[in-house]
Design a protein that fits this description.
The chain contains 5 helices and 5 strands, in the order H-E-E-H-H-E-H-E-E-H. The chain is an alpha/beta fold. Strands 2-1-3-4-5 form a 5-stranded mixed beta sheet. The two termini are 25 Å apart.
Length: 142
């Protein structure tokens, strides 16, 4: 999570919300990294999770990331939760809860919905205070 926090911290220079993500394989090797790039690239889908998933899939030359773990500083939204499920990521670890748009336990629980055909293990609240502080500091300046 500390690596994801470092990635998130670098995103603020572009004006993007500081969210960082990384994908690690079953051996613990980082195979994808991403930060929010919505403002930098004028791309509404360029959330940190999507960028990291695209990076990992490209590196592996495979659209399926079975056995991989996504680590992200903020609870994924519905779009990102859908991408996590579709990429077959096995586990998600996140820091801060997103009480406005979170889709992995706060507002919705897309990844653990019993109707979902993809089952994803979720660990929430890892370094939650540090992750939340990044967001609080960013928005207090706005």
């Amino acid at each position: 999570m500390r690596d994801a926090i470092a990635i998130a911290s670098s995103a603020t220079s572009s004006g993007d919300v500081p969210v960082g993500a990384l994908v690690i394989n079953k051996d613990g090797i980082v195979i994808g990294k991403g930060s929010n790039e919505r403002e930098a690239n004028n791309d509404p889908t360029a959330h940190a999770e999507i960028v990291a998933i695209r990076n990992a899939a490209s590196r592996l030359q495979n659209s399926r990331l079975d056995g991989c773990t996504l680590i992200v500083t903020l609870e994924p939204c519905a779009m990102c939760a859908g991408a996590i499920a579709q990429s077959r990521i096995s586990r998600v670890i996140f820091g801060a809860w997103d009480e406005k748009a979170g889709a992995v336990g706060s507002i919705w629980d897309v990844l653990r919905d019993p109707r979902s055909i993809f089952k994803v293990e979720v660990t929430a609240g890892v370094l939650e205070k540090e992750c939340a502080a990044l967001l609080k500091d960013f928005f207090s300046d706005k």
